Batch of 2 targets.
Target 1
Amino acid sequence: MNFGILRAAAVLLVWAAGTARAQAPAAKEPEVDSTPRLETTDPEWELSFEALQYLIDDEKDYLQTTLAADREELHLELRWNYEDYDTASIWIGWNFSAGDENIVLEFTPMLGFSSGEATGALAGYIASLDLWNFNVYNEAEYYIDTGDTDADWFYMWSEASFAPIEWFRFGVVAESYWDEDVEWEHDPGVLAAVTIGIAEIAVYLFNPDDDDPTLVFGVALEF
């Protein structure tokens, strides 16, 4: 056997393998996506709670409460003693808003249903206009009785107030009511409110010229 030829062949094979490795394309490193990514978070719920204590001479005093929840445009409400004594109502609405830091218009149409002393379908809205230190607020609803079509009614609460300083406002208020028996009934009044942290404490006096005016204490919280 010719060992010289074998050694030459082995050297030739080693050289050919090294050349092939040198000419092979280098493996590509994995590409890293350097595009900046925005972190997305779910919109948060905004909660508010309001309680109004009515003190009425010669009539039944009562506490009215409203719990509201907002998530972007969605608006939900749960009311107690609003439509009538011992009556609960649930609402769903959609928030619309326009304006800037000095002028803001907000409007929320709603549909609902009440159960208790007043059981029926509801249609209403909440509207407000902030114009610098002035505020106009209005909420209204139309009640459709499910058992008696002659028992339908309309109710509206209106406010116009001025805030000379950030934590205090005063103005006028009115409750308006309509049904087929009494036609229109208006109860005008005055209001004053102070804000402490997340709470607003308000006092309303309706029909101040009457011998028996109606006094209402209110507390509103926003979370």
Target 2
Amino acid sequence: MAMQAESIFDCNGQDGKDNKALYKSLPYPLRLVIKQTQQKIQQAVEINNPGRKIQPTSGLRAPATNARNGGKSNSLHLFGFARDFRYYDDEPQPFIVPDYLECIKSNNCWHVGYKRGI
């Protein structure tokens, strides 16, 4: 069961002003691709993990936000191709995701993003 989604711009509860500025600076077609990509990642997690209490958090990140949160310099968050989900399980298991996505534990959340090289 998904909880109310945080904005794709917020990052672990931090205000996402720099992320919003990055998004608004992009051409409309690219913004649309990022928004649809974020929705598809969230739908894949929700459909394949019915009944799990999750909360979507970080999606698109500006480089400064990514660095503050310990993200890699080539993070898929920088392109809007990854989304983090806070979990509330006592014994957290990775999310079940389609083959084209990967699920990696990161602090108190699961990072779900597109696999590279596919």
